[in-house]
Amino acid sequence: MNAVVYLSYTGNSRKAAAYLARRLAWPCLDLHELKETRFEHLLFVAPVHAERLADEALSFLKEADVEEMILVATYGRMNHGNAILDAQRKFRLPLVGAAYFPTRHSYVKADFYEAPYGRLDDLGNAFGKGRYIIVPESKDTFGRGLFPKLRARFAVHISVSDGCTHCRACEKACPFEAIVDGKISHRCIRCLACVKACPSGAIDFRLSRALANYLSKPKSEEVLVYVGSDE
Ligand SMILES: Cc1cc2nc3c(=O)[nH]c(=O)nc-3n(C[C@H](O)[C@H](O)[C@H](O)COP(=O)(O)O)c2cc1C
Ligand code: SF4
Ligand code: SF4
């Protein structure tokens, strides 16, 4: 089977996956509803969380049985670290292509950045040539991936307001069963899928001053695309 599969909490990876699936004329499948782990050609799109691929993406990559894979890591224009290379080393991924792709940042409310989807146009051509690649090392930052859940818990505060209609859309949207009766438990990774899903804007988030300062820094719009060459 050939497919584009995505993991997406706030919609950015889903949009990039939908764009790529349209170009390839392949099915576009949500990882949360996936029944298959065996693929001939797999294009997988997933977000960077704390400069690593999100945990659910790593769990999937550990299990997936794939002949040729292209991995696209969407990032919020801060730092993607070595998210793809780390996953490739850990799971010996059969990559024929890869990309770090800039998007809106999940934590920046007024981020109107338009992701440059056209820059991914040639990526799908890398399938079927048997040219496997090793993704180059990119610049690193101190503290990469250290206690990401703990850092997120202190830096992002989620709350439910009086406007809540108890529709439970947020509970259904949470992949971690972290909301029960409007209470957010320790299982929460601050992915914001619940905020995105709420039809009445009753669940919202607030950032610590330190994180807000960090996110106000100039952002990188670097698109890095890697495919095998003819030599
Ligand atoms: C928990 C969490 C951690 C994140 N860490 C980073 C990061 O280290 N660097 C970065 O540039 N963006 C970071 N982001 C932003 C996301 O990578 C970016 O918005 C991504 O496109 C979200 O994808 P999605 O909308 O498909 O969930 C983070 C977002 C979340 C929710
Ligand atoms: S409760 Fe936490 S883990 Fe669940 S969707 Fe909301 S932010 Fe994500
Ligand atoms: S989705 Fe919004 S309105 Fe519905 S239960 Fe959750 S917070 Fe309340």
Descriptive report:
This protein is 24% helix and 26% strand. With 231 residues, it is α/β, with parallel strands linked by helices. It folds into two domains: 2-142 and 219-227, Rossmann fold (3-Layer(aba) Sandwich), CATH 3.40.50.360; 148-215, Alpha-Beta Plaits, CATH 3.30.70. The strands form three sheets. Strands 1, 2, 3, 4, 5, 6 and 11 form a seven-stranded mixed β-sheet that branches. Strands 7-10 form a two-stranded antiparallel sheet. Strands 8-9 form a two-stranded antiparallel sheet. The longest helix is centred in the first third of the chain and has 13 residues, at 12-24. The chain is globular and about 60 Å long. The protein starts with a strand and ends with a strand. Flavin mononucleotide (FMN) is lined by residues 8-14, 47-51, 74-80, 103-106, 152, 190-192.
In what range is the share of β-strand residues? 25-35%
Flag low-confidence runs.
Answer: none
Q: How far is it from the N-terminal to the C-terminal residue, by CA?
A: 29 Å
Q: Which hetero compounds are present in the coordinates?
A: flavin mononucleotide, iron/sulfur cluster
Average pLDDT score: 93
Structural class: alpha/beta
- Count every beta strand, where a strand is a DSSP E run of 2 or more residues: 11
> What gross morphology would you assign?
globular
Question: Tell me about the biggest sheet?
Answer: 7 strands, mixed
CATH level 1 name of the largest domain: Alpha Beta
What is the radius of gyration computed over CA atoms, rounded to a whole number of angstroms? 18 Å
At the third CATH level, what is the topology name of the largest domain? Rossmann fold
Please indicate the count of domains: 2
Order of helices and strands: EHEEEHEHEHEHEEHEHE
